[in-house]
Amino acid sequence: MTFLPSKLNFRTGNILLFFILLSVISGCIPQRETVYLQNQAEDRNYKNPYSDLTTITERYVLRPNDLLYIQVNTSNPKLSEFFNPNRSGGSSNQQSQSLYTYLVDDSMNIDFPFVGTINFEGCTLQQAREKMENVLIPFVSDAHVKMRLASDSFVILGEVGSPGRIQMGKEQITIYEAIALAGDVRTFGKRKEIKIVRPDGDGYKTFFVDITDDNIVGSDEYYVYPNDLIYVRPMRAKSFGIGETFSFGIISSVLALYLTIEAISR
């Protein structure tokens, strides 16, 4: 009976030591999991999962429900005003932009004043601009069309600094630009398996990218497009309750508490 407290203390110490070691192991993240753009060629078993970029030109193809900001400029002020109503009015920039915004319907058409229906099936923005200028030739020979996406945003969720819907500012950006706009990946974000869900025709396609792999640069998967959904999953370490505020100071405090209790119980 006299040895029971010692046995209990020994068992308690082992249990505490086990949890401390588990916390240390779980909290340590290898450098290869966090460093971007690593050269994977040194790994003999590595196989490049990324497809080659087919072109270096604009890649985004217009889709249903895209909003297009369109302005028609000509050398004739009256014609310019005709195609751009309230151009010289006193409306705010936001109100003015809404007047020039056109929705791409499910048939890939827009309804443009006076001209009528224009179809943009399979067109990039540049191709859509050129097509619209050709459509306008019978009405005005020197038309210059200014066109951009008014719905140029993507959604990013998970282990990033600022999750949410983010404006791109242009038709396509790289995955690294998207992550930078979201405040970078958090400490326990899974950089090797970032999920991207992209509208594709009548449905969606899903793929994964590894931003620690430098082979992603120059591939089809390198770019983020409007309406993409990006999800950065947490590492397994976070499931143990270890967050970014985790430090070895916590372990030291727990160990000090245990030693104090051990000394008092003797």
Automatic annotation (TrEMBL):
Residue ranges annotated for the Polysaccharide export protein N-terminal domain, each copy included: 57-149
Keywords: Membrane, Signal, Transmembrane, Transmembrane helix
Annotated transmembrane regions: 240-261
One Gene Ontology molecular-function label: polysaccharide transmembrane transporter activity
Keyword Transmembrane: yes
UniProt keyword Aminoacyl-tRNA synthetase present: no
PROSITE patterns per UniProt: PROKAR_LIPOPROTEIN
InterPro entries: Poly_export, Poly_export_N
Pfam families (UniProt xref): Poly_export
Protein name: Protein involved in gliding motility EpsA
Species of provenance: Marinilabilia salmonicolor
Organism taxonomic ancestry: Bacteria, Pseudomonadati, Bacteroidota, Bacteroidia, Marinilabiliales
